[in-house]
């Protein structure tokens, strides 16, 4: 039983081991050997995440699993907390990183130096940020994952990458300063940095400190919104994501979700209890930002001619959707959002990888043609009598086409795939929460539905350009199995999730009860404390 | 002391914000450093400003009120280390951008 208790720290330790092993192995040996080692490490990480997830799914009584580092008593020592929300995010990270790693091992890992080291450092930072129960530790893990992401954004070099990464680094360094300021204000007013302890102390706070505390929370919120890619703080995102190497961009798909996670965690903990007394702190602002983000992302997606930029804008759309769901502050809506965050991350990751595969398939002239068709309109197509029977579609193209279609259906939220189920759960939750739908409910529903339509239009238009207008006929395209497998895996997982949606939603509702239930989270971490 | 410190933080932060809005990468990095100094001082100030308070209790019977809060100092120490690392990393990227684009403009081209 003693060994099992170390489970919450395992995802972090395994990634750390990955960093160390890759440093020791060195970067000069890039054979199958290195690939096998990294595959084993990532698979181990996935196993740990699955065990953590299933342990929390089974143990109905365990709301949150706290792991005091160094066995210091909780409010004083740093603590790791694994609850169902954290376990879900860790599992998503593990799945996505395994897929990206598989993809990268086909050829991308040899385009620069220390790919695997940075890669494992990024997953370590991600896992740590999801599992930590302490505000300052969250900052440290944020910086860890950002430092690795700077390296990965620059991976493969090139002028565009360096320029995009420079903007990305400046924005994130400023965000880190804001993070520290917000955290310092919270420490100054509350006197603790442990998230559960903050939740306990907020109702007991002196009235005079309230304004300063909320200012701190707002500054912290801005820092998280920058990371989450919310309008108008998202401007670094499309350039960075579309110029990063494809496997890196795929892994970045979960990085905006760290911002979402941090907002959800802190907001429900700190301001959740205040919901009874009317509007929650900052709710209107978050709603407005969410709607603006969705609108900007959808319109941006419509304007895209390249698939990688389209995928970046889809990330902004999903960030806006999640922001709206957090702002709604309703358990049923949040449960839908958790399903959405999993499938949107997996599908966006698959889309970034798919873009690279499509690039290999298309000769560069065809891509130029597709763009110029858009710009100058079609020339009248000459009816070619010989070609009335269309060319047969090679198997590889058909598979890629299907993958694209599935990704489009998930991202747009069409039935029967889980994007639809998640959006439906959010909207029905919003309508069930209030007996008479308010203006907020309609804004929420409208934004979710309209964004689905716009995303669908953007995806279909791109798909038509890629698969119908510009594929070379007759040429046999060589696709690497190692590159196709992770994409198919991610999308197949989306299909499986829609089959398992019932039990998964049950799990997410449990997760939401922990984060929305006043005192449940704090009670699990601070034993013996009187709960408000 | 409060006035001096808050003035220092304010001036550093204002200069930092001004500098990161400038178009040259060198100005941006100096601005980022100034901002991180301001933030570090701010973190320290959040542990309550006290003159002549010891970080450890000197006598066994020492009162807790004589005791300086060690948490902000630990936080500042970590923040300084991370800040240095990030500034160094940014410096490398800045040099790379300068080398690749031949310009120290943040957008990589003059106009």
From TrEMBL, chain A:
Membrane topology designation: Multi-pass membrane protein
InterPro entries documented for this protein: CPA3_Na-H_Antiporter_D, ND/Mrp_TM
Protein name according to UniProt: Monovalent cation/H+ antiporter subunit D
Compartment(s) of residence: Cell membrane; Membrane
Record domain NADH:quinone oxidoreductase/Mrp antiporter transmembrane: where: 133-441
Keywords: Cell membrane, Membrane, Transmembrane, Transmembrane helix
Pfam families according to UniProt: Proton_antipo_M
Spans traversing the lipid bilayer: 6-25, 37-65, 85-103, 138-157, 169-195, 215-236, 248-267, 279-298, 310-328, 334-354, 399-422, 442-464, 484-509
Family: Belongs to the CPA3 antiporters (TC 2.A.63) subunit D family.
Automatic annotation (TrEMBL), chain B:
Annotated transmembrane regions: 26-46, 74-97
Cellular location(s): Cell membrane
Originating species: Devosia oryziradicis
Keywords: Cell membrane, Membrane, Transmembrane, Transmembrane helix
Family according to the record: Belongs to the CPA3 antiporters (TC 2.A.63) subunit C family.
UniProt cross-references to Gene3D superfamilies, sorted A to Z: 1.10.287.3510
Name of the protein in its database record: Na+/H+ antiporter subunit C
Membrane topology: Multi-pass membrane protein
Pfam families: Oxidored_q2
